[in-house]
Design a protein that fits this description.
The relative contact order is 0.17. Strand 2, helix 3 (72-81) and strand 3 (89-92) form a beta-alpha-beta unit. Helix content is 48%, strand content 12%. The chain has one domain (7-171): 4-Layer Sandwich (Purple Acid Phosphatase, chain A, domain 2). The radius of gyration is 15 Å and the shape is globular. The longest helix is centred in the N-terminal third of the chain and has 19 residues, at 8-26. A three-stranded mixed sheet has the order 1-5-6, with no helix packed on it. Helix 1 (8-26) packs antiparallel against helix 4. By secondary structure, it is of the alpha/beta class. The protein starts with 7 loop residues before the first helix and ends in an 11-residue tail after the last strand. Bound molecules: manganese (II) ion. Residues 67, 69, 95, 128 line the site of manganese (II) ion.
Length: 186
């Protein structure tokens, strides 16, 4: 079991594990227990430290992308066209899952990159990072077909940690256009 609290050595272990996962991604298969659950545990800890509205100070450029919707090939194309993190900073606006076939793989790749480069990869919550949308637009079924409904329930917990907006360099407000889920502020 990898501890995500520990610094570089646990990051290195995770990085090795991500590289091992690559062939599984290309076949659309993976071991959720081994791959995704520990990753989500780690990302939850990171996200818990982030505020609900991110205050990002960016030098150079930032790539802003929205609505990947399970299109793994498109996500990989974005990384090919630009530099990979940490050479480039990315802000994803949300809607990682539903509609497309590879929501789980997209999510796993983005969470892995968040884990590896927390200061160069930022993930916001879209209106599809939510149960009702997933029930209607395919992500719940995808989780059931590829693994289990329990996996989907666990993913919902991680979704609930995602920040909802980012302000870039005190100038640009970035958020998903349509937020229809309930946010409980404590
Ligand atoms: Mn969308």
């Amino acid at each position: 079991m990898i501890s995500f609290e520990g610094g570089d050595s646990s990051r290195k272990k995770l990085f090795t594990r991500i590289k091992e996962m690559k062939p599984a991604w290309s076949k659309g298969k993976f071991d959720a227990k081994k791959d995704l659950y520990p990753l989500m545990d780690g990302v939850d800890l990171l996200l818990a430290k982030e505020p609900l509205v991110l205050d990002l100070a960016v030098t150079g450029s930032i790539i802003v992308a929205g609505d990947i919707h399970g299109q793994l090939a498109d996500l990989i194309r974005i990384f090919h066209k630009n530099n990979l993190p940490p050479a480039e900073t990315y802000l994803f606006l949300g809607d990682y899952v539903d509609r497309g076939e590879y929501g789980l793989e997209v999510l796993m790749l983005l969470l892995a990159l968040k884990m590896l480069y927390p200061n160069n990869v930022f993930l916001l919550r879209g209106n599809h990072e939510e149960a009702e949308q997933n029930e209607s637009y395919g992500f719940k079924d995808e989780c059931r077909a590829k693994y289990s409904e329990d996996l989907w329930l666990r993913i919902l917990k991680t979704f609930s940690w995602l920040p909802v907006a980012a302000i870039v360099n005190k100038k640009v407000l970035s958020l998903f256009a349509f937020q229809d889920f309930r946010i409980v502020l404590k």
